Amino acid sequence: MDDPTAVLDAGRLEFARGDWQAAHRDLSRARNLGALSTADLDLLSRATWWVGAARESLDLSEEVFDRYQQEGDPTGAAMKALNIGLLWFIRGDIVIASGWVNRARRILAELPEGVEHGYLRYLEAVVEMDFFGVGPARETAATLREMGRRYHAPQLTSLGLVLSGLADAHTGDPAGGFAQLDEAMLPVLAGQMPPEWAGDVYCTVIHICHNLGDLSRMRAWTAATEQWCEQFRGEVVYSGICRIHRLQLLCTEGDWTTAEAGIVRSGAELAGVNNWVAGEAYYQLGEIRRLRGDTTGARESFDRAHELGAEIQPGAALLDLTQGRVREAGAALRATMAGRDRLACARLLGPAVEIAIAEGRVDEADRLCRDLETIAAEYATEGFRAWAVHARAAVLVARKRHEEALPVLRRAAAGYRTLRARYETARIYELCATAHTGLGDDAAAESDLATAVAIYAELGALPDVARLGTVPLPGGLTAREAEVLRQIAAGASNRDAAAALFISVKTVDRHLANIFTKIDVSSRTAAAAWAHEHRLTRLG
Question: The whole model's pTM is what?
Answer without folding.
Answer: 0.80
